[in-house]
Amino acid sequence: MAKKIGVLTSGGDAPGMNAAVRAVCRTALQRGMEVVGIERGYNGLLNGEIVEMNARTVSGIIQRGGTCLYTARCPEFKTKEGVAKGAEKCREIGLDGIVVIGGDGSFRGAADLSSMGIPCIGLPGTIDNDISCTEYTIGYDTAMNTAMEMIDKIKDTAQSHDRCSVVEVMGRNAGYIAVNVGVAVGAEAVITPEKDYDLDAICTKIQNTMKSGKNHFVVVVAEGVGKTDEITKIISEKTGVETRATILGHVQRGGSPTVRDRVVATQMGHHAVELLEKGIGNRVVGMKDNHVYDVDIQEALSMKKPFEEELYGILNETAF
Ligand code: ADP
Ligand code: F6P
């Protein structure tokens, strides 16, 4: 039975992380445990950046983007010595477990710490939705809505100038944001790292669409493709349509979380504490068939997430 637990956020921040921190803190207090916040991810654990938490520490954060615990990337934690130092720190502080909110990299650290006797629970927090063991990651919905709103605005000006806009959305290695946002904005094409693409076919589609009277276009490119400028240049040259690139960037990581992100973060944070309360560690909390569940971290890291083939097909059939 855990008596004192810690919570940290690690890797890239995501809207809804605060809601998860709040849920962890309040659930733990409700169940009679002590809670501390560990600032700046594993860095803060190694450096002893520990803050006591009470019910009021997490007041007024559910609606805020970013993470009140700050986040960081900590190369030292990828070493055996770093993890051993982290486990020693946990013992010094008297921690019986840690909730780690982050992505796959953060879960690897959580697995290592669990293997050194500190039970850790991973919560999926990343805008990319690229964590295989879960249908949904905290931050995804907010990021998609932000990207959609930004592209709607870009469309206004593209339409006024008869231009094609190539918009790069985030997604380090994944096209989930790109495909969903592409459908939501009615993009003519979406280019993602998971699928081969044919720029000639995209240009022909644009030219055929022009014959039906349309003179403005949107092409969404996932960051992971890594060729936004090149794609923009080729579309411009092949179609003769003035084509501009916009990289949305970090705007997608900020902002007030949507209902979905706040609710899922709260459910997952609550579930994580229930596991630690029972002394269970080395698990990742995820969503399966729209329900919160948990899975062994190693198993979670070995899973493969399917690409949204059906949605990608629908997009290509409906945008012209
Ligand atoms: P994310 O958690 O979003 O995937 P990173 O890959 O940057 O982000 O990982 C966040 C942090 O998790 C790293 O800075 C490091 O401290 C820790 N981490 C990543 N990979 C490992 C690993 N293989 N072993 C231990 N800790 C790791
Ligand atoms: O994983 C989330 C994410 O925003 C990716 O989409 C992006 O590639 C990466 O983080 C960028 O991270 P940073 O700008 O913090 O280095």
Please give the structural blueprint:
Elements: E1 4-9, H1 17-30, E2 34-38, H2 41-47, E3 50-53, H3 80-93, E4 97-102, H4 104-115, E5 120-124, H5 140-161, E6 164-169, H6 176-185, E7 189-191, H7 199-211, E8 217-222, H8 228-239, E9 243-247, H9 259-277, E10 283-288, E11 291-296, H10 297-302, H11 309-318
The site of adenosine-5'-diphosphate has 17 residues, from helix 4.
Description of the molecule:
The chain is α/β, with parallel strands linked by helices. The protein folds into 2 domains: 4-139 and 257-302, Rossmann fold (3-Layer(aba) Sandwich); 141-253, 3-Layer(aba) Sandwich (Rossmann fold), CATH 3.40.50.460. 43% of the residues lie in helices and 18% in strands. It contains 11 helices and 11 strands. The chain has helices spanning 17-30, 41-47, 80-93, 104-115, 140-161, 176-185, 199-211, 228-239, 259-277, 297-302, 309-318; strands at 4-9, 34-38, 50-53, 97-102, 120-124, 164-169, 189-191, 217-222, 243-247, 283-288, 291-296. The strands form 2 sheets. It has a 7-stranded mixed sheet with strand order 3-2-1-4-5-10-11, sandwiched between helices. Strands 7-8-6-9 form a 4-stranded parallel sheet, sandwiched between helices. β4, α4 (104-115) and β5 form a beta-alpha-beta unit. α1 packs parallel to α9. It is elongated. The mean pLDDT is 97. The structure holds adenosine-5'-diphosphate and 6-O-phosphono-beta-D-fructofuranose (F6P). 6-O-phosphono-beta-D-fructofuranose binds at residues 12, 126-128, 170-172, 223, 253. Substrate binds at residues 126-128, 163, 170-172, 223, 244, 250-253. Keywords: Allosteric enzyme, ATP-binding, Cytoplasm, Glycolysis, Kinase, Magnesium, Metal-binding, Nucleotide-binding, Transferase. Homotetramer. It catalyses: beta-D-fructose 6-phosphate + ATP = beta-D-fructose 1,6-bisphosphate + ADP + H(+). ATP binds at residues 12, 73-74, 103-106.
